[in-house]
Amino acid sequence: MTKTTNTESQSKQQPSVLENLRPLLVDVAVPLGSYYFFKGAFGMGTFAALAWSSVVPAVRTLWSVVKERRVNGLAALILVVNVVGLALSFVSGDPRLMLAKDGAVSSTIGIGILVSVALGRPMMTAGLKPFLLKGDAAREAAWERLASGTAARSAEFLRKERVFSVIWGLVLVAECVARVVGAYTIPVATMVWLSSLLLVVAISLGMVLCARAAAEPMACLITDEVKRQEAAQEQAREQELAVAA
Questions:
Q1: Helix crossing, 46-53 with 30-41: angle to 10°?
Q2: What digits encode the pLDDT tens for the residues 50-75?
Q3: Burial classification of residue 53, based on how many CB atoms lie within 10 Å of its CB (0-12 exposed, 13-18 middle, 19 or more buried)
């Protein structure tokens, strides 16, 4: 009975994957999803869809400043992207320029990510963390020790954390450059479908590179830190028993 109760207590303390993903869903998925929803379901123009989809990130950014006295990085970045899109939606007439301006979204996000790394707060960590922790309290604690610099391999962990965001930032900036170059060198009819393909390729490339260079090594570091902590606790218990005896 006690064993069952302890298990239930631990499960209540451990956040679910959905709870870990909630900030990412609210800050990124909802604004982007609502943009395409407003355009597709209601037939809104680009300007109106961007304006309405900016409501959530705007409220989240304002709330974090007033209530938490800090800036919500993801919400603020999506808001900036939407503002850039609103400004560029006034650009019309030249089909090549219209194709090139779509790269502004990728470049804005990419530059924002790179700036966050330079400031010591890698923005892509928010999306990576839930997948590495899987709602496990022991892995959460291991992450905190590694991220705080108190663990033996903290330096390596923090370096991989920065690498993860740097790769995404560079990939998105490169996608923007490729889109702009293609807009002015490739026939418009070809670039219309190639533009979407470039984004798919960029995201796929980013996922592969980040997994090999950062995500997988970070997962191993977390696992090793969990084992190290468990071994230390076991050793402490043995010492207590030896003293008691």
A1: 150
A2: 667 767 666 766 766 666 666 555 56
A3: buried
